[in-house]
Amino acid sequence: MNNNTNLLIMEPRISIKKKHILTLERIGQLEIENALLNRLLQKQIDINQAKTTFLANVSHELRSPLTNIQLSASLIEHYYQRMNEEKIIGHLGKIKDAVSDFVVILNNYLLTEQSQKADEDQFTG
At 64, which CATH number? Predict the structure, then answer.
């Protein structure tokens, strides 16, 4: 509680007019604080929505390289005896490329998360 609120509670001799003025001041302060809290809440809602959308996109992007890795590994596993060395090396190259793509996507995600965290800390701190 602030000093004005303490005055209202602790001092019975304060005039009604003074109490009214102090009450109106406190109401004004509370309205300002409420507006700030509402803005902070809306910002958090927006951040959470952006994160949800971002995670959905990242999840989709990560599936492609993983699918390519799985497909090439399965082809090598099942058909390696019938494949020549060139085809095996080609599939291994696809696996390496997919892993590289995966790492790039993951690094981008981590950088974005760090940036969003810094923005949130700046906003709330």
Answer: 1.10.287.130
